Amino acid sequence: MQLKIEVPRREALCAASAGLVGFTTSWLPALAAATETERSNPKAVILLWMNGGPSTIDLWDLKPGHDNGGPFREIATPVPGMRISEHLPQLARLGSEFSIVRSMSTREGDHSRARFVATTGYTPQGAIKFPSLGSLVAHEGDQAAQDIPSYVHVGGRPTVTGGGFLGPTFAPFVVGDGGRRGASGAELTVADLSTPANVSTGDRLRRLALLSELRDHSSLSPRFDVVESIESATDRALQLMRPSAASAFNLGEERESMRKAYGHSSFGQGCLLARRLVERGVRCVEVALDGWDTHSDNFDRVKELSQTLDQGFAALLDDLKSRGLLQDTLIVCQGEFGRTPSINGQSGRDHWPASWSMVLAGAGIRGGQVVGKTSVDGRVVESKPTRTCDLMATIFQSIGLDPMKQNMSNVSRPIRLADPEGQPIEALL
Amino acid sequence: MTFRWIACVLSIAMWCAAPFCFAVERRPQELSKQIDQTLFGGDGERHREPADDATYLRRLSLDLLGRIPTVAEVRQFLDDRSDSKRQQAVQRMLDSGAYPRNMATFWRRGWVPQADTPEYAAVAEGFEQWLVKQLQQEVRYDDLVQAVITWDDDSSSPRGLDPRGFYHANDSRPANLAASATRAFLGINLDCAQCHDHPFARWSRQQFWQTAAFFVDSPHDADGAVKLPTIRIPETDVECQPRFLTAATKPTGAEYPDPGELRTQLADWMLAESENYLARNAVNRIWAHFFGHAIVEPIDDLSGTTAQQTERADLLDQLAQTFIDSGYDIDLLVQGIVLSDAYQVAAVPAGGHPGPARLAAGVSLGKVRGLTGEQLYDSLRTAAGLPAEATAVGSNRGSENRDAFVAKFYVERPHQAERSISQALAMMNGAFVNDLSSVEHNRLLASVASSPFLSAEEQIDTVFLAVLGRHATGDEMAAVNDRFKSHQGIGLEQNLGDLFWALVNGPEFNTNH
């Protein structure tokens, strides 16, 4: 049986304001205990999102010797037969820790549609508000007991900005303003997490008390979705402001050597933040690396991006492993599609969903595997093609969730975690 | 036909020196009646409880001007005893400078949504400035679309007031331009057809690339003559030439001396094609601006199955026909909508059952919507007694603070807006809101605090008028008054600042209801 527990809004507001002056509230531990018996937490997911559609023919499935291959060379990994790009040397060293799916074959070649399908597992259908993978995983986890949002997006802009039919509680919390118009980018801090210097604790408490009281008199009740989301966001923001929660986002608490290992790119630091968050019970963290839409000058750009990816991803694998967290954390590395095997007139590659690769590691995934095979020119998947629904089924199964589990959607129709057509990739489980 | 006839009568009436305001009021009211008859039919009375004056003014101001009304505007409107005060308020707003700026943002967001992403943010300003100028001059809607589709780099005006942003936002790539032009101007979604044929979809992959071919520059053959351009479907050997989407016919003429000629023909076809996609799309998007939900959803899928069914499709067809007959008059359509009973329905009926009302046609009325970033920023300033920012002539942009705030509070569709934690943090702890919560930066609070002739109740009530556009209720007044008394020690200014902060962080200020 699944018990739905909601923190009463007004209590949360009061509790949060009380927490600021050091009271511990009585309901939180009780709530945590209650949820623990009702739910078993699934494993965590870290999605390394290669935004724009990575040229996987230049990363994970090279075609040396063919015209489509481009200038990159392959290097060996500890796994016989698993060879990857020369620009991923750290990952090559860790080849037995991850597996490559070389048989991805999808249908959407438009960025926004492909992103939607890749992150929700479903093709857009009428009015159904499909939630993303992160929201689904967060929803299965033990949300109410923690102050940190259980689904965090780092460094870009999430494809589905809300929580879909699961509601705003499961919406991604976005760290870093890199995906915003007019913002400078690389800072991975949470803006406005504390009160401004000229506002005292007394000021804050008075204001919160007044806000709480005026809410009680409001004629606009949380029956309206939009109103509910505003009140809920306010309450969750207050929870996040508690010092214990806020410190999760403080990378300054990490040793300099650790920060260096991940690389000083915002992607690398985002991977480090992902580890800190997963350690604290966050269920899903997306870390975006943008710039893969290489219609021109593909090889210079992919080389540079590969180096950023290599350092962050490899450091994450090393770090999670040494902390004993890798077995409970799934890492997924992919973008919305691959890129054309043929090279265009601007040394670029265009959108290509028909044959591409992605990488899985950790949790219930067997490492050191290569799934599927593409033709010598890279244009055709020669083994059984892997569809998005197959990948989703694999992901859910590997973190201990039944892909066939249903949630009620906004159109009053139950929707399964993964499209029921999907067949998990047995070789990886 | 009816409207042409009315237009004719009205123009005669104007020649006869009938009062001007009477002439412009009449036609929109006919349109309002058409909307209400279609929606409510015979038995819709119980869904029609209208919003009270304060709620209506706030809703209207947010939708037409992009900001809440000022204290003065609220007081004046509430005190006005005239029967036609709602019509007069609409007219005042349409005549104001804020209206074209607000609508320019609306059309830009619909047509060039890429400009809301960091990659293409730079194109927003130029495109909106161009739109402001057109809307100020009351350019017809069909001419606006034509100007975008047929824009030519050679004809750019020196000040850069042109729609080139549409091309930049699409990287000037034929495939992107085809997908964006059909979505923005026809409400047709061709994204899937770009890569594959879908068994149930109306549009094929070939049709997508035939549309894209209109945006390819015409090549010259060996003799220097211009040829019909072709474009190859990627990774295939199929070459496509331009064909009009719904008609599958070729552009006319064997030669194309002007590089823009093909796109001129494309625009002509868009205006003439028999299914009225252009007008239906315009009406559907404008409707969504005022009601949240579009008449037909998804908003960019007018060729999909939901667009073919039910009374909703009929309503959209009717309004589209009226729009065409009016000479693509945007302001007439806007007036017709905001003066309809349908638009004026209360979201929260006074004593009755809570909305939103859902009519037989399945159209939702009285929907509570979130605010766009622009609305929120400009409303915060208005509430604080500050003018909305307008730096350059004809522009509502140019302020870095505003741009950053707007980006942070971006919502795709206001009726489905979900406030995020980051946004809540910015509202509670951000410098902008906190500055406005002190008398040093808040002119309204400063003037209330320095008005000794106001009673404590009047001071509190003025803050409610400024922030929420209505008087405080008895309960609210008692609660706030008690708080002020118990915190007397911190002083009036601090208490007023607290009240402002609490009100702008509450759901009523943050929604359009």
TrEMBL record, chain A:
**Which SUPFAM superfamilies is this protein grouped with?**
Alkaline phosphatase-like (SSF53649)
Which Pfam family is one of this chain's hits? Answer: DUF1501
Residue ranges crossing the lipid bilayer per the database entry: none
Query: Mind telling me what this protein is named?
Result: DUF1501 domain-containing protein
**Lineage, highest ranks first:** Bacteria, Pseudomonadati, Planctomycetota, Planctomycetia, Pirellulales
Automatic annotation (TrEMBL), chain B:
- What sequence ranges are listed for the domain DUF1553? 263-389
Entry's transmembrane regions = none
Q: Which UniProt keywords apply?
A: Signal
Q: What is this protein called?
A: DUF1549 domain-containing protein
* Segment forming the signal sequence: 1-23
Source organism, top-level taxon? Bacteria
Identify the Pfam families for this entry.
Answer: PSCyt2, PSD1
Q: Which residues form the DUF1549 domain?
A: 46-217
Question: Is Signal a UniProt keyword of this protein?
Answer: yes
- What is the protein's species of origin? Roseiconus nitratireducens
